[in-house]
Specification:
It is built from 10 helices and 10 strands. It has helices at residues 32-46, 50-67, 71-81, 87-108, 127-137, 152-161, 176-187, 198-207, 240-248, 282-303; strands at residues 27-28, 142-146, 166-169, 173-174, 191-193, 211-215, 226-230, 233-237, 252-259, 266-271. It has a 6-stranded mixed β-sheet with strand order 5-3-6-2-9-10, with helices on both faces. Strands 1-4 form a two-stranded parallel ribbon.
């Protein structure tokens, strides 16, 4: 990974190179013909004026909402999260979430957006941001946590452009659209860490002075998860962040890419470091640390509910019986 540039608040830093050890792309690409055709269509969409692209995202989001694609899941989640809210207000939030997802897709396939960041709000403020920069300037790594919120892909690019060496914990994907997004991650300078061996890879990265970005808002099988409160209900959550933090001593920051009122510009907010709880056993400390970070994510979702992925079955996995606690990763 190239060294951070001297002025990390500038949105026009030279693009870094991802670590050579973390550029392998796992997944399933389409056939050459299908891939070529799909990419030409995506090129045409990306060439549209920004206002047209946003109009297209709004239409696609509205259409998916109107057709009811996963709408029952979204409304069930919102009913549990906001029982006091009217059905009309929950539907308004759900529609906003669909539009957010359509925007994320259209924005993330754009191969130019890490070159011409017209969508960025340049300033990043706060003590947490200064602490993260100082940590990197000392050559020390960090763990960064975000959610499927705002635009998590562009939030990572904002960090990279500001001199934060970044590796993202990702899953293998398939299909022309998904693989284009993966290629854009590498082009922006991000290294890729996959689930198999993720804790070892993440630990190595932070020891090398890099950062590791994890999304902490997806459901996992019970045997691989810890259960922490999220909107008042236990949610199965990866313990990887807490395990790596305990093993390496790396500080943990929450980073969120938040859309402005227009929905077309993004600003970065950072909180932390969020310390590992003291005086607890290994299992309890892991759960408590995961819960503390998840509470910060919940705060942002409550503040901007239409920017989170309510379409995901976040609470589908139930806690195991007390006689069979989840084991921590090795």
């Amino acid at each position: 990974m190239s060294a951070p540039a001297p002025s990390p608040d500038s949105p026009r830093l030279p693009l870094p190179l991802p670590p050579a050890r973390l550029v392998q792309v796992l997944g399933e690409r389409p056939s050459p013909v299908v891939g070529w055709l799909a990419n030409r269509v995506m090129d045409a969409v990306c060439a549209l004026p920004a206002s047209w692209k946003d109009g297209l995202a709004r239409f696609v989001g509205w259409l998916a909402f109107t057709l009811g694609i996963r709408l029952r899941v979204a409304l069930e989640n919102l009913t549990h999260a906001y029982p006091e809210m009217s059905d009309a207000e929950r539907r308004r939030i759900a529609l906003g979430a669909y539009i957010t997802m359509a925007r994320v897709v259209l924005e993330s396939i754009d191969e130019k957006d890490h070159v011409d960041p017209h969508w960025e709000i340049p300033e990043v403020k706060g003590e947490a941001w200064e602490a993260l920069k100082a940590n990197i300037a000392r050559g020390q790594g960090a763990l960064l946590v975000t959610a499927h919120f705002g635009n998590w892909e562009r939030a990572g690019k904002m960090l990279l452009r500001r001199g934060i060496p970044l590796n993202a914990l990702v899953r293998p994907l398939k299909g022309a659209l998904n693989m284009r997004i993966v290629d854009n991650r590498i082009a922006a300078g991000a290294g890729l860490i996959y689930p198999k061996g993720a804790i070892a890879e993440a630990s190595e990265a932070v020891k090398l002075g890099e950062t590791v970005l994890m999304l902490l808002d997806q459901s996992l099988p019970a045997k691989a998860a810890v259960f922490v409160p999220f909107f008042g209900r236990p949610a199965s959550t990866t313990p990887a962040m807490a395990v790596v933090a305990r093993r390496t001593g790396a500080p943990v920051f929450v980073v969120m890419g938040i859309r402005d009122e227009s929905g077309q510009k993004l600003r970065l907010e950072v909180e932390g470091p969020i310390p590992v709880p003291e005086g607890l056993g290994e299992q309890d400390a892991t759960t408590a640390h995961t819960a503390a970070v998840t509470a910060v994510l919940e705060k942002y979702v409550r503040r901007y509910p239409d920017q989170w992925l309510w379409l995901h079955r976040r609470w589908k996995v139930q806690p195991p019986s007390p006689e069979a606690p989840a084991a921590l990763p090795g």
